[in-house]
Amino acid sequence: MNSRGTVQPIPRADFAVKPFTHGAWRGEIVSPSSDLLEALLSMLESPSDARVLKEGRARKVWVGAALGRGLLIKEYRTPRWEDRLAALLRGSRAALEWRSAKRLAERGVPIPQPILWGEHRGAEGEPRGVVVFEFIADGQPISEFMNADSRLSPEARRELLHSLGACLGRLHRAGAEHGDAHPGNLLVTRRSGKPEVLILDLHQLRWSRTLPWRRRLMNLGRFLAGQGENLSTGSKQRCLQAYLEALGDWSPPFPSEREARRSMGRAVEFFAHRAFRGHWRSRLAKCVREGKRFHRLRLGEYSGWVRAEWDSPALREALADPNALFSGPCSTLLKDTPTTSVARVARPGLLRPLFAKRYNRKGPWERIKNLFRRSRAMKVWRSAYALEILGIPTPTTVAVLERRKGPLLLESFILTEWIEGGVGYDDFYRESRRAPRGQAGAHDLRALELAVANLFRALHSHGISHGDLKGRNVLLDPSAPAPHAPRLVDLDAMTLRPMRFRRARINDLSRLLFSVYEATTPAAWVRFFREYSRRDAALWRDRRRWWSAIRRRTERKLIEKHGKIPERER
Q1: Which helix (H) or strand (E) element contains residue 237?
Q2: Of the N and C termini of the chain, which has fewer Cβ atoms inside 10 Å?
Q3: 3 state DSSP class of 150
Q4: What is the average per-residue pLDDT within 241-266?
């Protein structure tokens, strides 16, 4: 039923299948490919030139070829008795995915072309189920496509959003809801010359005769959640419009179609944000779990975590006595104060030089506080991985170590990659302003200002506060081309969910202005704040109030340090 209340039938595509039995194989194959049956089964039994994309305990996904055709093969196994019992009760996962693929293909939902389903029971007795699809050689997950094609023309971007909304609208119109809704299960191809979105992982589909609006919008929001910075509010609205146009059977209880679209847009924004936060938290928890990315460290009295790609005998030998990292011929001590010690470590056997930091506060009150909170090293470890997940640049953390006596924290260390030649934004900005600059130099400085504004916006758009975001904690690489790859460092005070976020946001911005106040100009800050609020129209409309609060806080800091507000350089 559309907005006028008229029912529109679901179009049916011509999709015919043919059952087969061949030796130990039984299954179904699409009629146009029935002449390829023997070649397909031969390829499945003895694959040659196979390329494995993913392999786990119960599923293997690989790419093969038969008679010049690229094929995507999903092979399901049932190694445990509970898997076999579930297959007896509800059917094998291969059969379930094949049935879903047939129903979607009949209803015109865009998916890779299904070719064959087969089940094989060999002499070992363990059933083996496979589903074969057409392999999309130029296909990319939608997140990778949008990151790789960041310079998409406005027309191509509109076509992509329209294809995305139409694809999900047809899925829900067919009565299906994706149980694993994330951007990795949306594939983008340009086979028709325009971006076209296809749905993957069909074994996760859930079917329903009546799909409630809440479940539809939650499913749509989860698909859009992983896009983060790629999709603005306007982009999500255009996607929702294409979704409703493709759905064709909606009549929500709203006084007008405009009000319906507005209310649904707010719901999609809410569900997308909630799904994104849940997915982000689940990924963040992996940095303190043994797995393929992180390994547990237990070295005498010390314990902690190390990245899998850095884990080596040479690194473990160095970490067995972490205090020795701050002395010796392979270390350069950069800072040693009552609070922290910092050194550059370049030992044989390490992949690259390391930045080592030790937290020296060992007073009674500090130890009591650490009974009820994470150590500063562990906060940096989690915060750096949180930024990495969000795509916000920061030096890669390599390892974290703690020494405790029961719950009492005695020592903590954090190791990150060393950025050769790195310089703080405030020092670099002041030197660049004072140096003679031609047109190219002025353009590079403006590009740097906008890049730092984008870095702040990316951080604050996810509700994160750095806590100490002064100029020296934005590290630049002068050897890189403009804007010199800015990245955030010194994450000790970062708060992933501050209780008073507006106050924390103003504090971050005022700290940056305080660092470069004498070298900056009002025009530069207008450009900075315009770029910072680019995706938030309400923030730009309220810029006078925001700027007043930032200026007051900055002036208070300047008076505390200098006794007066210094004059700006010309």
Answers
A1: helix 233-247
A2: C
A3: coil
A4: 77
Contact 188, 196 (CB under 8 A): yes
Tokens at 273, concatenated: 């944000």
The helix or strand, by DSSP H or E, that contains position 481, with its residue range, turns out to be none
pLDDT of residue 89: 64
User: Which residues are bridge partners to 416 per DSSP?
Assistant: 355, 397
C-alpha distances out from residue 266 to 106, 280, 361, 466, 542, Å:
33, 21, 47, 29, 21
Report which secondary-structure segment, H or E, holds 71. Answer: strand 69-77
Angle at 243 between CA 242 and CA 249, to 5 degrees: 115
C-alpha dihedral, 144 to 145 to 151 to 157, nearest 10° = -130
Which pLDDT tens digit goes with each residue over 176-191?
Answer: 999 888 878 889 988 7
Residue 10: pLDDT band (50, 70, 90) is: very low
- Half-sphere CA count of 119, side-chain side, radius 13 A: 17
State yes or no: pLDDT of 556 exceeds 60: yes
Give the number of other Cβ atoms within 10 Å of residue 233's Cβ.
13
Tokens read off for 504: 């924390």
Over the range 431-457, which residues count as b (16 or more CB within 10 Å of their CB) and which as e?
ebbeeeeeeeeeebbeebbbbbbbbbb
> Does the pLDDT value for residue 7 go beyond 60?
no
Question: CB of 473 within 8 A of CB of 431?
Answer: no
Contact 288, 305 (CB under 8 A): yes
Concatenated DSSP letters of 401-412? EEEEETTEEEEE
CA distance 375 to 418: 22
115, containing H or E segment: strand 114-121
